[in-house]
Design brief:
Strand content: under 5%
Largest sheet: none
Structural class: mainly alpha
Number of helices: 12
Radius of gyration: 18 Å
Length: 230
């Protein structure tokens, strides 16, 4: 029974990811999901009483793995702030891969349950990473900071890159603001930004999406816009 439930969930999520990327989150109906997944509507509703529950599931899947990927890229000998910078850069770059993927992230940062997951998941990471810079701050303080930081993140995600506001500039701007907020010294900030600038962050973001698709037994098939390839 558990295996059947797990298989059904994977079928549904796989179809949802494909449809959300092809036609957008808001334009995808529950009836279409059920039909294309080939599952009974009752089975779907048992797992996902509302479409927003699918958004929450995808948010947990995507955010749950990003810090792990970031740590694997940022050498473990480096301070944790580098992993934060990589994870943040990955998020912002992912929204440039596909306009409907951008919309999924914007929905996640706007939806009550999904955004609360982001706040709670991220604030514990922030406390661990930035606690040494702000020793008097509790996890609750970092939760409050994350609410503000997430609002800025959403604003930056909503603005597509172009030849003037390049991806490199977007990453540098956001990281400068956030590292200032977390009291990272200016000299260390420069080192972190230089580290990010040397990464092929576009390739890394594609790798993150490929890992998600691999977990769902999907092919990575949508084309990348020129602003990401450059």
């Amino acid at each position: 029974m558990r295996r059947d439930s797990s298989d059904t969930k994977r079928k549904i999520l796989t179809v949802c990811v494909r449809l959300f990327l092809e036609q957008g989150y808001k334009n995808t109906s529950v009836s279409q999901i059920v039909d294309e997944a080939g599952v009974a509507r009752g089975s779907y509703l048992n797992l996902f009483p509302t479409k927003d529950r699918i958004l929450l599931e995808l948010t947990e899947t995507m955010f749950g793995g990003q810090f792990g990927v970031a740590r694997s890229i940022a050498d473990t000998k480096l301070p944790p702030v580098y992993a934060y910078a990589v994870e943040t850069a990955i998020q912002l770059t992912l929204t440039e891969l596909n306009e409907n993927l951008r919309d999924i992230y914007l929905e996640a940062y706007s939806h009550t349950e999904a955004s609360e997951y982001i706040y709670q998941h991220t604030s514990s990471e922030l406390h661990r990473i930035f606690g040494p810079y702000l020793p008097s701050y509790t996890e609750s303080d970092f939760y409050e900071l994350e609410i503000g930081s997430a609002g800025i993140m959403r604003g930056y995600m909503s603005r597509p890159c172009d030849k003037y506001f390049t991806l490199e500039k977007k990453l540098a701007r956001f990281l400068s603001m956030s590292l200032n907020a977390y009291a990272v010294p200016a000299a260390e900030q420069k080192q972190v930004l230089d580290f990010i600038a040397k990464l092929d962050i576009r390739a890394i973001a594609v790798q993150v999406m490929q890992e998600l698709f691999k977990a769902l037994a999907m092919r990575f098939s949508f084309p990348l816009p020129d602003s990401v390839k450059a």
